């Protein structure tokens, strides 16, 4: 149909149809509830069955162009598509498909108004990232990036001040309602800034997108901010700042009849408690940020030098919306020696998990040695945010396309 549609010179969007006596519209034509419905990206139009000339088989879906002359509709062009149940995801979820791109455009507008520069960086990289738990797809001795982070930080080192990117990213982890192998990562960075600046940016972004949500009041609410030790104590009674916090987590898991292993590390126990008992409760009434993550869980964040009992933390926060983690932010580690040490620790962790370590990113390390200003950066999963804005329960409902073999958790 696309190669023919230009012939229909009077074709107009359905939303602008009005009461014209002679017009042409085109789109997806289906029969439902006793009448035909034609739909384009602006809206839909109901047409009585008797108005469709020639008569079409009601069991099929069509691409069609319809002409109206003196209130009489007729078919100028039609092409049979597969049955309604087998249409591509982009057609099954057409309104969400359209809203998705409106939200992406609004996100770009928000950062442009803040005088950020949009950038793009390589998708195929030598080092996909430095987080030991993330799995990348390998492609001929290179990797598909898990995030654009390392290249964007090289731009900070080169003097770029405020940058953002809507970056296709890839992670080789089990697909579920909250994770697809390919997704859009929104990342933005500010030089001479800290986590407080990123919290303000995040608040502003949610406010700017609230009008696209089925629950705009929620996204207009102020973000609540927790420190990790305070949050643990509030929800579980576990005091992370005490020397026996590992034993406290064991006792808590046992009391709750939750699984753990005798050889679990402190981090293993932390994750078991956090993911099962804390994360699902976050961001229910309003968006919430949890800051002050354990130092051992942040390969690229600066350590917090201030003592907090036995708890060692870093400058990192995560954003939670309706029980789902949506963003991860760092006050960036700028020390090349400390970064090399963290890389070695991450490599050792991957080996202990039976995984091959990723190569070091030589260009990134060289850029750090030349100097990176004090900076803060955040990675936000746009697909999850769009899903939550639109009140959906699965990424499949808002994805442009999705894996048909997807088995949802």
Task: Please provide a written account of the structure.
The protein has 409 residues and is of the alpha+beta class. The protein has one domain (95-406): BirA Bifunctional Protein, domain 2 (2-Layer Sandwich). The protein has helices at 2-5, 89-92, 94-113, 149-157, 195-209, 216-220, 228-236, 245-255, 266-278, 336-352, 362-370, 382-389, and strands spanning 22-32, 35-40, 43-47, 61-69, 72-81, 117-118, 124-125, 138-139, 142-144, 162-170, 182-191, 224-227, 288-291, 316-321, 324-331, 375-381. The strands form 3 sheets. The protein has an 8-stranded mixed β-sheet, sandwiched between helices. Strand 2 (35-40) and strand 3 form a beta hairpin. Helix 3 (94-113) packs across helix 5 (195-209) and helix 4 packs parallel to helix 11 (362-370). The longest helix is centred in the N-terminal third of the chain and has 20 residues, at 94-113. The radius of gyration is 26 Å and the shape is elongated. The model is unreliable at 83-93 and 403-409 (pLDDT under 50).
Question: What features would you highlight for this structure?
Answer:
single chain, BirA Bifunctional Protein, domain 2, 5-stranded antiparallel β-sheet, disordered C terminus
Order of helix and strand elements from N to C terminus:
HEEEEEHHEEEEHEEHHEHHHEEEHHEH
What's the CATH H-level superfamily name? Answer: Bira Bifunctional Protein, Domain 2
Derived from helix and strand composition plus strand pairing, the structural class reads: alpha+beta
CATH-derived architecture:
2-Layer Sandwich
Multimeric status of the protein: single chain
CATH topology: BirA Bifunctional Protein, domain 2
Give the overall shape, derived from the CA principal axes.
Answer: elongated
Approximate helicity band: 25-40%
Distance linking N and C termini: 38 Å
Class in CATH? Answer: Alpha Beta
Going across the major beta sheet, what is the strand order? 6-10-11-16-15-14-13-12
Q: How many separate domains?
A: 1
- Strand residue percentage: 15-25%
| Strand elements, count | 16
Helix tally equals 12
Low-pLDDT regions: 83-93, 403-409
Radius of gyration, in Å, reads 26 Å
How would you characterize the largest beta sheet?
A: 8 strands, mixed
Please state the average pLDDT score: 88
């Amino acid at each position: 149909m696309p190669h023919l549609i230009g012939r229909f010179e009077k074709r107009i969007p359905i939303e602008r149809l009005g009461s014209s006596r002679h017009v042409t519209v085109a789109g997806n034509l289906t029969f439902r509830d006793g009448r035909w419905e034609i739909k384009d990206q602006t809206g839909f139009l109901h047409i009585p069955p008797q108005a469709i000339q020639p008569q079409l088989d009601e069991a099929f879906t069509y691409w069609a162009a319809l002409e109206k002359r003196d209130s009489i509709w007729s078919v100028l062009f039609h092409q049979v598509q597969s049955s309604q149940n087998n249409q591509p995801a982009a057609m099954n979820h057409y309104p969400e498909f359209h809203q998705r791109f409106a939200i992406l455009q609004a996100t770009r507008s928000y950062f442009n108004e803040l005088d950020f520069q949009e950038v793009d960086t390589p998708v195929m990289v030598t080092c996909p990232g430095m987080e030991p738990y993330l799995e990348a797809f390998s492609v001929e001795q290179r990797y598909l990036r898990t995030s654009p982070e390392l290249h964007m930080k090289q731009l900070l080192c080169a003097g770029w001040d405020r940058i953002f990117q809507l970056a296709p990213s890839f992670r080789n982890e089990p697909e579920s309602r909250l994770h697809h192998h390919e997704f859009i990562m929104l990342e933005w960075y500010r030089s001479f800034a800290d986590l407080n600046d990123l919290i303000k940016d995040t608040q502003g972004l949610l406010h700017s997108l609230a009008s696209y949500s089925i629950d705009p009041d929620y996204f207009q609410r102020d973000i609540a901010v927790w420190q990790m030790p305070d949050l643990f104590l509030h929800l579980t009674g576990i005091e992370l700042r005490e020397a026996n916090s590992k034993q406290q987590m064991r006792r808590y898991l046992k009391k709750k009849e939750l699984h753990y292993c005798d050889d679990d590390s402190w981090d293993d126990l932390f994750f078991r408690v956090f993911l099962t008992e804390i994360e699902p409760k976050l961001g229910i009434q309003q968006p919430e940020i949890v800051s002050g993550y354990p130092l051992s869980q942040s390969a690229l964040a600066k350590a917090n030098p201030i003592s907090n009992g036995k708890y060692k933390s870093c400058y990192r926060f995560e954003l939670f919306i309706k029980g789902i983690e949506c963003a991860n932010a760092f006050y960036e580690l700028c020390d090349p020696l400390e970064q090399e040490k963290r890389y070695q620790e991450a490599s050792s962790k991957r080996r202990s998990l039976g995984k091959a370590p990723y190569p070091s990113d030589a260009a990134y390390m060289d850029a750090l040695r030349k100097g990176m200003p004090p900076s803060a950066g955040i990675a936000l999963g746009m697909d999850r945010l769009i899903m939550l804005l639109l009140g959906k329960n699965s990424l499949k409902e808002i994805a442009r396309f999705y894996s048909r073999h997807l088995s949802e958790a």
